[in-house]
Amino acid sequence: MSFEYSRKSALRLFLFVLAVFLCISIVATPAAAAEEQTFTEKFYQNFIEDDRYKYLVTGLQNTLIITVFSLIMGLVLGALIAIVRTVHDMKGKLKLLNLVARGYLTVIRGTPVLIQLLIIYFVIFASVDIALVPVAIVAFGLNSAAYIAEIIRAGINAVPKGQFEAGSSLGLPFAITMITIILPQAIKNILPALCNEGIVLLKETSVSGYIGLIDLTKGGDIIRSQTYEAFMPYIAVALIYLTVVVVLTHFVKKLEVKLNAS
Amino acid sequence: MPAKGEVLIQVKNLQKAFGDHEVLKGINTEIREGEVVAIVGPSGCGKSTFLRSLNLLEVPTGGQILFEGVDITDKSVNINKMREKIGMVFQQFNLFPNMTVKDNIMLAPTRLKVMSKEEASKKADELLKRIGLSEKADARPQQLSGGQQQRIAIVRSLAMNPDVMLFDEPTSALDPEMVGEVLSLMKDLAESGMTMIIVTHEMGFAREVADRVMFINDGVIQEENTPQEFFTNPQHPRLKEFLSKVL
Hints:
The complex is a heterodimer of chains A (262) and B (247).
Chain A: H1 2-27, H2 39-48, H3 53-91, H4 95-110, H5 113-124, H6 132-157, H7 161-169, H8 174-204, H9 216-227, H10 231-261
Helix pairs in contact in A: 1-10, 3-4, 3-6, 3-9, 4-6, 5-6, 6-8, 7-8, 8-10, 9-10
Chain B: E1 7-18, E2 21-32, E3 36-40, H1 47-53, E4 62-67, E5 70-71, H2 79-83, E6 86-89, H3 101-111, H4 117-130, H5 146-158, E7 164-168, H6 176-191, E8 195-199, H7 203-209, E9 212-217, E10 220-225, H8 227-232, H9 237-246
Parallel strand pairs in B: 3-8, 3-9, 6-7, 7-8
Antiparallel strand pairs in B: 1-2, 1-4, 4-5, 9-10
């Protein structure tokens, strides 16, 4: 019941924020003397004229593609790192790999994602003729892998130790115990944090413009540079991000409820 | 004490230290086939550590454990194969909450290919019937009472047809009214000839069911005897003191 309520209230809050934005955009439309424009005229100029909305469409497309694929890459790589770290912690094996993994985590988590993106594009792929989107996917994938690895590891650690011991005491090998007993329980701990990581990632991709890639943010920025009007394109961009995040959160919460029921 | 069957487990100078903290300081004993051994002692004396060493949940820092003649502390031994023959029941039941009761029982036999799916299913049905919980086959562990969970944990171990069962304070986490049902299942098990090693605080049970009672204190076995002698004629002053407190 209480959950149902919170979902509805989240939706209401979202609609409220939307309404506030619209109000501000109408009220705040500068009444700068000479060429005073109405809201509609501004809207037309920023989005319809010269098909400018297409910058946002292309931008959103790229933002979503980068987010989805770097999340997948982050999941695969992050799971591998988490396995290395967990096997090391529980069985004392894979010492060297664990050291490599820890070094990786330290470097990735200790430097800004923008610097990582710039280094990957301008240093690592400097002499390679490669499209921008794959570069961004690699950069954000490598970045989120570090965070996802720790999310997975924490999820595994949160499963009571007795579960592992019970599996072991039945003669089940480490891998089978992990797959049949520990991971299914860990998923419930992992999923909410993973969703969070997805949302963070979506927003982090907004720095993709630095390598000349037209993501959603850059799309809005281009419109501004053409119309010399900052308010409308940036607010539109913000609203699109917000919508995607709210929709994502909604579906993940539904999934969580399903998982908890099982 | 009655020499039952062949020697099943032989423990030689078993030691375990956690860092500088020595918990087991040289345990020597033998467990024979069909024997029921109760281990008692004050908390922190090392009795659980000793039990958990027998299937290497705790890796000993010294000494040997021969199970059916094989030294399981030897690193070249496949411990998982050994554990298939050593059942264990925990204080916290440790049923797997992500599967049904029946799947809990069938997991190890099917995954380890000891039985086919059909055989394991039949075995699980038999075991559930034996403890009167057939109707709970498709329930989730968390829907059951502590006593029911612990009885299922016991038959989950039995599904592997182990040669010995280890019990680590099996009734300590139970509501008082549920202790009886678990102890009576354990008693049935003992009467059916199962070799059992039980760490317990249930002195009455130890006295009634065990063939031998072992007193562990300060990391060594300070006294072991038949329940009759153990409880009525304790020798070691520390055991006398312990019994005076718990009886």
